[in-house]
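Sat 14:20. Reprocessing the chain from the morning session after the first attempt stalled halfway. Input below, unchanged.
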Amino acid sequence: MWHRFVGALLVIQMGMACAADDMAVDVKRKGDSFVIGATATVAAPSSVVWEVLTDYDHLARFIPGLSRSAVQIRAANRVQLEQTGEARFFVFAYPIEVRLEVLESPRESISSRRIGGNLKRMSGRYDLQVAQGGVRLRYAGELEPDFALPPLIGTLAVRTMVEEQFAALVSEIERRASLAR
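Finished this time. Tokens:
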């Protein structure tokens, strides 16, 4: 998110409306990379969670910072995506282009890794676990941009983007679940 842009870009203004009150996002710097973790329990059946996570061609409609997401190749449980967007923080903007290889394990997990684009490295994984009240959604990933981010500001910028994008993902899941009821 950066969901798959950060796995995303893959990425949640804390003030954004989001029904998952147990949502948590953690970003740690590791050299030039960022290690990302995000979790939330979403009030939705696993079928709806899966539908939103794999709606690759429409992610740009609800993921902030993502302007285009398109399936290039689909073969069984493997998907190749191209995504473009922008990482923004205050007055700074960095264009992002990434090509991802995605491996789906239906209704259990989605793993992705960068195979091209202007990020040095990006990988991520979503895990779904049925929980009381819905589905526990976990994201773990690592991102290394090809542009320099200052130590303190860089971590804050990535955290802000991941929070914004993960909250938007959770909101879309819960929106679609409410429409299905």
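Residues 24-180 form a domain with the Alpha-D-Glucose-1,6-Bisphosphate; Chain A, domain 4 fold (CATH 3.30.530.20).
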